[in-house]
Amino acid sequence: MAHWLFKSEPDVFGWDDQVALGDKGGPWDGVRNYQARNNMRAMKVGETGFFYHSRSGLEIVGIVEVIGEAQQDPTTDDPRWDCVTVRSLRPLARPVSLERIKATPELSEMVLVRNSRLSVQPVTDAEWQLLCEMGGTEA
DNA sequence: GCCAACGTTGGC
DNA sequence: GCCAACGTTGGC
Length: 139
Hints:
A hairpin with a 5-residue loop joins strand 3 and strand 4. The chain contains 6 helices and 6 strands; from the N terminus they run E-H-H-E-H-E-E-E-H-H-E-H. It is globular and about 40 Å long. Helix content is 27%, strand content 35%. By secondary structure, the chain is α+β, with helices and mostly antiparallel strands. The protein has one domain: ph1033 like fold (Roll), CATH 3.10.590. It binds a DNA duplex through loops.
C-alpha cells in the first residue's frame, strides 16, 4: 500500500480540525494543482498519509486514512478538480519537524524537501517507516 | 512580511 | 509552441 503526505496551513485547517471531523472525515478539497490532484487520483481506500502543518508549525503532526477515492471537488464546478476523503487515525506521539527531516540523510530525497510547494505528495515505504519511528507511532 | 521557486495564463 | 507576466505557495 502506498503512503502519502498532506499539507495544510494550521491557521486555515489544522490537525485539530481534521480530528474534529471524527471517523466520517471530510473531503481534502481546494487542491488546484495537477500533480497534487493526480496523486489523489492514485489513492486507494485504506491507504494512509501524514498530516503536515505548512507555513507555521512546519512539522508532521498526525496520520490520516483515505476513506473515499477521488471524486469531484465540491468547492468548484470545474470538472478538472477532484478530492479524496480522509479521516484522522492518530496523532504522532512526537511531531517530526521539517528541521529534523532536513537533518536526516535518509530523508533528503523526500518530496517535502525536494519540492516544497507540492501540497499532496507520495512518501516511500522506507520514509514512512523511519518517520513513524521518529514520531513514536506504529507504521 | 518577504521573496524564491514554481505553476499557469495568454499574447504573439 | 514559446515565453514573459503574473499569481500562489511556503520556508525563512
